[in-house]
Amino acid sequence: EEGGTGAHLVFPIRSVISALLAAADQPPPAMVTAGTTWLGVATTAIPMGLAFGTAMQNGLVILPETIRYQFTFSRYIMLKMFLAATISSCASFALLSLLAPKRFQRAREVYFGCGSDKSMTAAAAGGAMLGAGMAIGGACPGMVIVQLGCGVPNAGYTFAGGLLGAATYGAFEPTFKRMLHGPMRQRKMDEMAGTSFATFALGFAGLLVAVVGLIEYLVPWTSDLPIFATPWKSAWPPILSGAIIGSLQVPAILGLGDTLGSSSAYMTVLSQALLTPSLEGAYQHITSFKRGADNWWQVVYLGASMLGSYLSSQSMGTYGAAQGLDPVTGVLGGFLMLFGSRVASGCTSGHGLSGMAMLSLPSVVAVCGMFGCAIACGVTMSAIGAYGGYQ
Q1: How far is CA 103 from its chain centroid?
Q2: Is the pLDDT of residue 27 over 60?
Q3: Nearest CA to 316 among 55, 66, 69, 138?
Q4: What's the pLDDT band for 387 if we cut at 50, 70, 90?
């Protein structure tokens, strides 16, 4: 056969390069709405939120120290849960792409329609700011709400900082949009590689299984818990919690027509302050999040997650056991998390769990920026003694 094995190895690489070079000439994808109904919000978003809050709290990823110490490689709960949730998301999406292809494809179009006019630079820069906020604030946008439910001290300041970050981006969105606009349209890695979604997603999941398995082998979860926690009694394995969270993608697509995300909820809450038509006209980007089940399901979902966190922490005896951050640090971390999420058009859930599992190239770029900057900030802050301010 002409070219032999080498030709088969070179061809996929050549296909990906050709797709990247041709991407600038492609028109932007048509905007598709999720079509979420209020019945779906009531029957799907609420149970999902309860499960999300319970899994996050019981996995103890909600502790600010857990997030911060991950970025100094002193604790691995967060990384295990994140990877397990991504693996579960990949498997869920692959299953849906085979069993419910129309619903899956519509949800995928909804996902890729968000931020479709932004550049890879926006994904990287926004992800980096989000990562810095996580390293400083010991949380991520959705996790802050779960922290409120289980009594993490001063989590309210982190939430307030998040609203401030969302407001800052929303107020100047026209300017930021011009700065962040980019021509890159080809964003689906399976199409770039010339393979089916399920094949690529399951292969990616298999790679992550090997990574998280190695980490668990080297650092067993039972040896990685805070001093107050007892395995199974007051803490779940982070891999189990992550698998539960990732599996929520199935009801999200089937019941809501959407995928997991959190940062848009801040915009919806913020938009309620626009009480007059003149304010709505002045801040059109924020206003676009104000009404409709498509916008409100995330608010309901996160509200239910706060309740799930509260109930599970009470039942496991861990309510209020976490150490919080000082108010200034909380506000700064929250601001960077939400401002970065809006720049990147996605947060830890939106890019990390949904985007990477949807095989979105910008999401991979955003997650690399997030972890890279978070590690740099975490190592720097630890070196100068800035990680000692728990209360």
Answers
A1: 21
A2: no
A3: 55
A4: confident
> How far is the C-alpha of 362 from the C-alpha of 364, rounded, in Å?
5
Residue position matching structure tokens 């818990």: 225
* DSSP sequence for 96-141: HHHHSHHHHHHHHHHHHHTTTTB-HHHHHHHHHHHHHHHHHHS--H
Which amino acid belongs to residue 271? S
Look up tokens 């990685």; give the residue. Answer: 224
Partners of 360 in beta bridges:
188
Give which of 309, 337, 341 is closest to 245, Cα–Cα.
309
CA 67 – CA 149 distance, rounded (Å): 17
CB distance 181 to 119 below 8 Å: yes
pLDDT in the model for residue 10: 39
Q: Please report how the helices 327-344 and 120-137 are oriented relative to each other, as an axis angle in degrees rounded to 10.
A: 160
Q: What is the DSSP string of 131-142?
A: HHHHHHHS--HH
> Do 51 and 248 form a contact (C-beta atoms < 8 A)?
yes
Secondary structure, 3-state, 271-339 = HCCCCCHHHHHHCHHHHCCCCCHHHHHHHHHHHHHHHHHHHHHHHHCCCCCCCCCCHHHHHHHHHHHHH
Q: What angle do CA 337, 129, 296 make, to 5 degrees?
A: 35
pTM of the model: 0.88
- The enclosing H or E element of 368 equals helix 361-383
For 233-253, write each residue's pLDDT tens digit.
999 999 999 999 999 999 999
**Three-class SS state of 360:** strand
